[in-house]
Specification:
Layout (H helix, E strand, L loop, with lengths): L2 E8 L11 H19 L3 E5 L1 H10 L1 H12 L3 E4 L13 H19 L5 E3 L7 H10 L3 E5 L1 H6 L13 E3 L5 E7 L1 H11 L5 H13 L4 E8 L21 H16 L2 E2 L2 H10 L5 E2 L19 H4 L5 H18 L4 H10 L10 H17 L21 E4 L5 E5 L3 E6 L5 E7 L8 E2 L20 E5 L4 E4 L7 E5 L2 E10 L2 E10 L5 E8 L7 E8 L10 E4 L7 E4 L4 E2 L20 E5 L5 E6 L7 E9 L2 E11 L14 E7 L4
Parallel strand pairs: 1-2, 1-8, 1-9, 2-3, 4-5, 5-7, 6-10
Antiparallel strand pairs: 6-7, 11-12, 12-13, 13-14, 14-15, 16-17, 16-22, 18-19, 19-20, 20-21, 21-30, 22-29, 23-24, 23-26, 25-28, 26-27, 27-30, 28-29
Helix pairs in contact: 1-3, 1-9, 2-3, 2-4, 4-5, 4-13, 8-9
Length: 652
């Protein structure tokens, strides 16, 4: 006999549900869910945030009473979420910790229950989140397995090969109950009437015949049955049969034809663990550093740098978090408010009214903590260039060389002050990053120049591909201990002010990009491309970054990847590193490498990677994205200035 389980995600903050429609959602979706449980006697898992619970209490307290009673009687099971539905890898560790603590407090107060299992918000997972959930006291997590299979190279292996436990950044691990994107999408389609019930049951039978013993039949939204959130113009019509009634009919048909044994999520987790040998593994890799649910078009960038103005919104949240810490404010009310502003739904298909409310809420908090809307441009008095700095030009006026006691930097004026080479004293002045000229690689697929420090902006609707690879005549000045090399490049859309700041004493270089008079384009904006020079590295490369947890996550570059490759015509990228603390480093087996550092409270950019092995060499590039295109993208928004620092790797 095969076992099965159902988990419903309840979310009154659903991006495209207007505030005034929440009572209708409770009536059309949440009450029918409880009725489905009564009729079928399936011990369904119900996951919802503390915020959603609070909203239901205000709108329909009777539903809470009924839910509490059913939980007490074991008719269903509460699954944890947190106070707000947050994309954990993108936010600081302390936000994740407090979000879980506030959620558990709400469950205890309103339901008198503390959940044993947490569902990873939006199935946006990172290794560091395991430690967060374990610290909160959870005894297991729910995560979608399809992209984890890709991460671990198990996509063509039996499901029995999947890990039973997810390991955190250290020794902590938690058992995992798997969700399945294909299974929940198939059930949605049959309930909506897009496929016949007979076709659906045949599909489930086939999976059982192939040896599947534990079926996550459904693990997704409740608000899509007998209600349409209004995210897309082409949403399917409501089924005339009544979708909750159709759901009930499908479950009964599954029961009669497939003889499924329905388990609660906790029972399923215990049985899954008890029936298999314990297999503990990290669930991420360089292929999928932050796995999410569903297909590649649904990736971490939809909450990081797309939406209405995600870059600005995430930056503002970092600012508010830092201001709250600096003020010493530690009330639950303030923590809840900041967690709510980090909610995933504000970053996707948010309605006009709710977006305006969000802007007003942020403005009020900025006023409360005396935060400026923008970072003022520096106005410093130039001084005489230090005698320890040597500046030279080649005979053709293309290359500008800056030598200090700590580093050597060569810039290409013909290509917009891109970095030709950068070398540090502590690494024997051997250049680690720079430019790989056309012809370096033997394959025509890589038959181009690969620069460092460049900018690439693509706006499909305008058929525009903009770069900074133009002749420039930079202005060279010294301010304090920094040598400033700056130039302005004009585009039809606005001006790009590019500045390279060389520390005349220490081993560090800063690159700054300012977009004067720009509106955030409906496309991709990628800056600061850093190209590694392959001959400077020995053995395999490793990337280290923090993605929402307390510890660093390590990714071995043992596969070809390109996070900036379009997932579809309408989705410009496929993955990224969250780097929630504003740092990323890359090094070889000898510890030789570079570290990049920036301030998310100035510009919360996302980090992308391209790594390609070819004919004994490798092309490895890191860059920062300020905007990406997907189905959540909307016109308007701010293109924030961005600045990052390059320095030789030092362990931290």
């Amino acid at each position: 006999m095969s076992h099965a389980y159902l988990i419903f995600h309840l979310n009154l903050a659903f991006s495209s549900i207007p505030t005034e429609a929440r009572p209708e959602v409770i009536r059309k979706c949440y009450w029918p869910l409880l009725e489905l449980i009564r009729k079928t006697k399936v011990p369904v898992g119900i996951e919802l945030t503390g915020w959603t619970l609070n909203q239901i209490v205000e709108i329909d307290p009777e539903w809470i009473d009924c839910f509490r009673s059913m939980l007490r009687n074991g008719q269903c099971e509460l699954i944890g979420s947190g106070w707000s539905q947050i994309i954990g890898p993108l936010v600081p560790y302390l936000i994740n910790v407090r979000n879980q603590a506030l959620g558990l407090e709400a469950y205890r107060q309103l339901l008198d229950v503390e959940p044993n299992i947490a569902l990873v918000n939006e199935m946006a997972y990172s290794t560091g989140l395991v430690d967060v959930y374990a610290e909160a006291g959870y005894r297991g997590i729910i995560m979608d397995r399809d992209n984890v299979r890709l991460a671990l190279g198990l996509e063509h292996r039996p499901l029995s090969m999947m890990p039973t436990h997810a390991q955190g950044c250290g020794e902590v691990s938690l058992p995992v109950l798997w969700s399945d994107s294909i299974l929940f999408q198939r059930l949605q389609r049959v309930v909506h009437g897009d496929i016949p019930v007979t076709e659906y049951t045949s599909y489930i039978k086939r999976r059982i015949e192939q040896g599947e013993k534990m079926l996550p039949i459904y693990c997704n939204d409740a608000e899509i049955f007998d209600y349409r959130p209004g995210r897309f113009a082409a949403e399917s019509r409501l089924h005339s049969e009544g979708e909750w009634l159709r759901f009930e009919r499908v479950l009964k048909q599954l029961q009669s034809e497939c003889e499924l044994n329905w388990l609660s999520p906790s029972e399923a987790l215990s049985k899954q663990f008890g029936d298999a040998e314990k297999k503990t593994s990290r669930l991420t890799s360089i292929i999928q550093p932050i796995p999410v649910k569903k297909q590649a078009k649904y990736n971490i960038n939809r909450w990081a740098v797309s939406g209405r103005d995600d870059l600005w919104l995430n930056t503002a949240c970092h600012q508010l978090f830092q201001a709250m810490q600096k003020s010493g404010e530690d009330s639950s009310e303030c923590w809840r408010e900041v967690c709510e502003l980090w909610a995933s739904d504000l970053r996707t298909h948010i309605t006009d009214l709710r977006w305006q409310e969000t802007l007003e809420q942020i403005a009020g908090l900025k006023l409360k903590w005396a935060l400026a809307d923008s970072v003022p441009r520096e106005h410093r008095k130039p001084q005489k260039i230090s005698e320890s700095v040597l500046i030279e030009s080649d005979e053709e006026g293309i290359f500008l060389t800056i030598n200090t006691p700590a580093l050597k930097l060569v810039l290409n004026k013909r290509r917009g002050m891109t970095i030709h080479t950068l070398a540090f004293k502590s690494q024997g002045f051997a250049a680690l990053i720079g430019t790989l000229s056309q012809g370096y690689f033997q394959t025509i697929e890589l038959g181009a120049d690969f620069y460092s420090g460049g900018v690439l902006i693509e706006i499909p609707s305008q058929h525009a591909r903009l770069t900074d690879l133009e002749w420039v005549s930079p202005q060279v000045q010294q301010f304090g201990s920094e040598l400033s090399i700056s130039a302005v490049i004009a585009f039809d859309q606005g001006k790009l002010r590019k500045t390279i700041l060389v520390d005349t004493v220490a081993e560090k270089v800063r690159l700054r990009y300012e977009f004067d008079d720009w509106e955030r384009p409906l496309g991709s904006v990628r800056v600061g491309k850093v190209t590694l020079l392959p001959e400077a590295f020995t053995g395999d490369l490793t990337i280290e970054s923090v993605n929402g947890g307390a510890g660093k996550e390590l990714f071995c570059l043992n596969r070809n990847v390109d996070y900036g490759k379009a997932a579809s015509v309408l989705v410009s990228s496929s993955s990224a590193l969250a780097c929630s603390d504003g740092r990323v480093s890359i090094h070889d087996d000898m510890g030789n490498g570079v570290e990049l550092e920036w301030h998310p409270a100035v510009s919360a950019a996302i980090v992308m990677l391209q790594h390609v092995h070819t004919h004994g060499a490798h092309l490895t590039r890191l860059w920062f994205s300020l905007a990406e295109l997907d189905d959540t993208s909307r016109r308007g928004g701010r293109l924030l200035p961005f600045e990052f620092e390059i320095k030789p790797l030092k362990k931290y």
